[in-house]
Amino acid sequence: MRSIRRPVLAAAALTAVVALTATGCGPEGDNADAKPSQSAAQDTGGGEIKIPQDIQDKLKEHGIDLDKWKNGEWKNWDKDKWLREAGEFINPIIKNFWNPDKIDKVKPPQDPSKPEDISEDQGKTDPEPAAVAAQPVKTPYTSTAPGVGLLLFSTPEGESRCSATVVKDPAHPGKSNLVWTAAHCVHAGKNGGWYRNMMFVPNFNKNGVAADKLKAAPFEDRVPSGKWWADDMATSNEWIKGGGAVPGVPMAPYDFALMHVKPEQSTGGKSLEEIAGAAYTVDFNAPAMAKIPSLTAQGYPAEPPFDGAAQQQCTDKPTRLSMDAKPTMYRIGCTMTGGSSGGPWFIKGADGKPVLVSNMSMGPRPARWSAGPHLGPEAKSMFDTMSKKWATKQ
């Protein structure tokens, strides 16, 4: 694999995390009639929602009113309201916005590409791999694939979904709140901004129940490890400046993203890693592809022939897919469809445990192969910035 030298700035984003349907935060008990202190008034955003002053200032700067946001203003995708730059990711929690029935019905983004058009203009380093049929991941996912889950978000076209994974945070060993996914799952690229209502459901539908039977499954089986809202987000400047809402050329080699999350409901101080059951090391210096005997991609494909309810996987020896003047991508034979984007690509580490080296990014229609970005210095810079930012807090 050729070296990757082109620098990229990590887009670590400031986020407001606010329970918009929270009850009032005013005084209780013997002081119920007392007026809040000046500091309390400053931190409550109108006396209903407790918001740090710096976040209030950030929201005001962008003309965002939380009450209006809660009542539907988040649906305003006008360019002057659609935040897109690094430092502008704002994702207030709207409690129960993602209820189980709504989660079950969400579909992946519509891909307007036609068969073959992704590969027509690409320089291929290796021949196209043979298709590898995706296979169901063994259940329960809480034991066989802990930490892999469903990512839900709102776009101008409606609610959408991808896949994502809990990754280890060196600043918080055993207690990570970091989640890895694809850039096109969180940001629209050059013609748009950050998506909204970003929420992660680890171990979704842990028993792999079919979509037509999912509604009857117990809530604790459908959402076994809680709902986690992004409160910080990072991706590459390459993607922000030149990416697209639909994955593909020319910025697919930079199609990766990292988020920090917080739970919708209290977990008693437990982290995402503790609740989900696992987190995975990210390898930013993976071996050359010729030295990787096999790579496994996982995710929740939701386009036919898949129904989005069950987790699937493909295992193949990776080959190379090159873009003009861009880092070479991994490519494997795989029939997973839309909805699997952002899902983890694993190799076996020295200890035999899965190590994340890429994520699902792009592929042709009908699905025969998939490609994912090489995670090098650019991705590591993004990751390190996020980890250091949250090193003294969770």
Automatic annotation (TrEMBL):
Q: What span is annotated as the signal peptide, if there is one?
A: 1-21
Which of UniProt's keywords are assigned here? Signal
Ranges for the region named Disordered are 28-51, 100-133
List, alphabetically, the InterPro entries matched. Answer: Glutamyl_endopeptidase, Peptidase_S1_PA, Peptidase_S1_PA_chymotrypsin, TAT_signal
Basic and acidic residues compositional bias, start-end: 101-127
What is the designated name of this protein?
V8-like Glu-specific endopeptidase
- Say which species the protein is native to: Streptomyces inhibens
